[in-house]
Design a protein that fits this description.
It is a single chain. This protein is α/β, with parallel strands linked by helices. It has a single domain, classed as 3-Layer(aba) Sandwich (Rossmann fold), CATH 3.40.50. The chain contains eight helices and eleven strands. The chain has helices spanning 15-28, 78-81, 85-94, 107-114, 129-135, 161-174, 176-186, 199-205; strands at residues 2-8, 36-43, 49-51, 54-56, 60-61, 70-73, 100-103, 121-122, 140-141, 147-149, 153-156. α1 (15-28) links the parallel β1 and β2. α6 runs antiparallel to α7. The longest helix has 14 residues, at 15-28. The protein is globular and about 45 Å long.
Length: 209
């Protein structure tokens, strides 16, 4: 079975919010032999999306998207997206059948708007922390971590933190060895939320073959 990772991209999305995790998951497919990993973008329609000057041609629209194991919603353009009932309804509809819901930056506001974060500890871009606390008092909003794992719902802080979160998801699903192979391939200094380790030493022990 193909493991489908869909990254929704909205108008004015923050580019690194979704291209960073895309890079992580796409590189993971190089090192996982147990299943086929397919990483793709999703738009409200199939029309090109302007992500702050970066033009994205989504692989699927919300009407043609296959069943997902992971859905990621980035930040940027979320104020407008929070009023897009068609997209909100689509996310709400597919959420129960999606194994993991991920958000980067202000993407967490979309999940909060739908009610998918009730009772959870979450994070977001530092500029939206107060907004979440004031408008969603049922959430435990923690701005001290790069990402927060609620088992099937994982939120990250702003922009570059999405890369750290995506690597955490790789470790969670395919193991630490695979995650370190990806960090070594990307030449990235991974900031893990709960564990301090010597990444350079561990990456030197990873067999890239």
């Amino acid at each position: 079975m193909t493991f489908n990772i869909g990254i929704f991209v909205q108008d004015n999305a923050e580019p690194l919010d979704f291209t960073g995790p895309f890079e992580v998951f796409n590189n993971t497919s190089k090192f996982v032999d147990s299943e086929q990993i397919s990483v793709f973008t999703i738009g409200e329609t199939a029309d090109p999306i302007n992500a702050q000057g970066l033009s994205i041609n989504p692989t699927y629209s919300i009407n043609t998207c296959p069943t997902l194991q992971i859905l990621l919603v980035p930040g940027g353009g979320t104020t407008k997206l929070m009023e897009n009932q068609q997209v909100l309804s689509w996310i709400e509809q597919i959420a129960p059948s999606t194994n993991y819901l991920l958000s980067v930056c202000t993407g967490s506001l979309i999940y909060a708007k739908i009610g998918l974060l009730l009772g959870m500890t979450v994070t977001s871009h530092f500029g939206s922390i107060q907004y979440l606390r004031e408008n969603y008092p049922d959430l435990d909003v923690d701005d001290s971590k790069r990402y927060i794992d609620n088992n099937t719902v994982i939120t990250s802080a702003g922009i570059s933190a999405g890369i750290d979160m995506a690597l955490h998801v790789v470790e969670k699903l395919w193991g630490l060895d695979i995650a370190y192979k990806v960090t070594k391939y990307m030449e990235y200094n991974w900031e893990r939320t709960d564990i301090n380790v010597n990444l350079d030493h561990l990456k030197s022990l990873v067999d890239m073959t």
